[in-house]
Records
---
Amino acid sequence: MLELPLVLFDCQFNDIEWICDQAALRVTICHLQRHWASFQIRATMIKSMLNNLESQILDKQQLPILGQLLLIENDSNSLLGYNNNRRNYQPILTRPVRESVEVKIEKYQNKKAKLGISTDDNKNETTNSDTLVP
């Protein structure tokens, strides 16, 4: 099944009168009209391709119909352009995460302590290099 995002575009609120900028409204309408026209052209082209391909099937009873794409998909590729294989799905909360900033800072400080580098030494080195004159 093709998954599409949820888009809220017709929300009702009591006692609220929206004020729309007319120029922004025209730009939005033009943008949506371009998308609509593009999708209509694509849909027409795909329908034409389907009609052509369906006419080549000899056994009309085995003809896949809309909603039965699983009958003609294979495991590795989908006709929809993506692999809809859910076997490898891992829930977000069980996925590995990176170390927190606090852990990274603690490791850095431990490493500095092992090497015998203090924070004051680093400040002195930068101050001395800043005062050098060529």
Note: The chain has three helices and no strands.
---
Amino acid sequence: MQQLFVISFDTEDAARGAMQSLRALEREGQVHFEDTAIVTRDPDGNAHVKNELSAATEAGAGIGAGIGVLVAGLAFPIVGLAIGAIAGAAIGAITHSGVDRDFIEDVKADLAPGRSALFLVTQSVNAGALASALRPYSGTVLQTTVDDDFEQTLKDALRG
């Protein structure tokens, strides 16, 4: 079951640092991300969204690269690999079930200048590990789809 977490931070660096800590958890198998995005608003008010590859896009790229090698790889292996990866990533991106773009736009519109928001869609997550990884960062939980106890654990961790 997917879980959504939206956390705001005072700075873009804090959101990026939190994401790096969470990627380390992913490498350890403590969390499996379906999709992630970081939204930032410059002090002058301009907003930016950085969508990372979703799991569906990554899987599509991998499968597409394999098919590309099989289909076109005999004559042109590098070209087949590249074409397959691009096609697979596109299909994965179209079909992914990650962060809703309209929801990102709503949060982006409400984000104060200079602040950032981290969007996480997880397939599985170790609650204790997630809270520990976020503890060094001061943030505010904007929205989650987890139970009240899990959400409170995150809020406590983000209080620093």
Note: The chain is about 50% helix and 25% strand.
---
Amino acid sequence: MHHLGKENSILNQFISELRDRELQKDAMRFRKNIERIGEILSYELSKTLEYQIETVTTPFGTKDISLPQNKLVLCSVLRAGLPLHQGLLNYFDGAENAFISAYRHHRDQGDAFEVIVNYLAAPSIEGKTLILTDPMLATGKTLENVYEALKKYGFPKKIHIISVIGSKQGIDYINTIFPEDTQLWIAAVDDKLSAKGYILPGLGDAGDLSFGIKL
């Protein structure tokens, strides 16, 4: 796990604004901060990719530059993952993209829930570097279901997970689900989950804060 929020950086300013219930009233600012966090996490992740020296021709000569070689697939969970996905795409603009809808279904309005996946659009992930993005890593059940749904598209060479805020419980859970060499890139880690499986203190519902309350 790469927990970037443990270090002092401008990242903590963006996290603070996301959590602030007064600043959350500005949906554009909320989305932009998630996007900026995605960019920061992408930059740090990029240091672990595979690189190769290539020659670039300039107007006055040539220059050898070390460039990333990985074939990337970015996969985000709709709808909350869209701003985070954009942050990654700002940096990994040559990546292929996948989108999946996954939502919690609470039976009889109780605390217990199941994660339902009912839409998936993805390229082949066989032998590629898969980057899964979900802004709120609460119980880990959503990422588990997304991973299971993607298996019919091939087996990736490497898996990275990018989240804004996660719970310790959710992080422990995905450690039991994903391959041992999977890397998690996260901005903040909170201690608790509510009875309904929401991160505490967290920030609320990232999808609603980004795009409005759903019925």
Note: The two ends are 35 Å apart (CA to CA).
